[in-house]
Amino acid sequence: MTETKCIFCGWANRALVGENALAAAFRDAFPVSEGHTLIVPKRHAVTFLDLTEEETGAIFALARECAEALRKGDASIGGFNFGANAGACAGQTVFHCHFHLIPRRDGDHPHPRGGVRAVIPGKAAY
Ligand code: AMP
Ligand code: ZN
Question: Would strands 16-19 and 23-27 be described as parallel, antiparallel, or unpaired?
Fold first, then answer.
């Protein structure tokens, strides 16, 4: 079901950086790093647990396309963080499923080890 009030249900009115039949990609309004991209299902779904297999596949395929395009256009990108916050306790603030694709560059963090493990302070390094 489409929720017209959801800000990401309005994906069609955004400046998209990519799309396929079931997913759309646009830049995050408050980027963690230059090129920070959000990949969303076109259909309203709250978290990745609500996606169909087809939507999951479409999102991953689009994320790969976006990552390749970003890397092609910016040689300083050496890697990515890719993931979704599912549920308020996990940090989700927009309740239309979205995957963050965050370009990473050497030196952008003094201690990058652990990456997404840093969601809980002090737990990144192991
Ligand atoms: P999350 O905390 O995982 O729900 O992430 C929500 C993301 O949406 C954050 O990275 C925000 O910067 C981003 N965001 C919030 N409002 C907008 C908006 N109007 N357009 C694009 N990105 C947004
Ligand atoms: Zn929505």
Answer: antiparallel
Q: What is the mean pLDDT of residues 25-52?
A: 98
CA of 18 to the centre of ligand 1 (A): 17
Residue with the bigger pLDDT between 125 and 39: it is 39
How crowded is residue 82: how many other Cβ atoms within 10 Å of its Cβ? 18
Could you report the per-residue pLDDT of 41-72, keeping only the tens digit for each? 999 999 999 999 999 999 999 999 999 999 99
Q: Which domains, and CATH codes, for the chain?
A: 1-44+57-74+98-107 (3.30.428.10)
The whole-number average pLDDT for the span 77-106 is 98
Pocket of ligand 1 (CB under 6 A): 7, 28-30, 85, 91-94
Ligand nearest to the CA of 40: 2
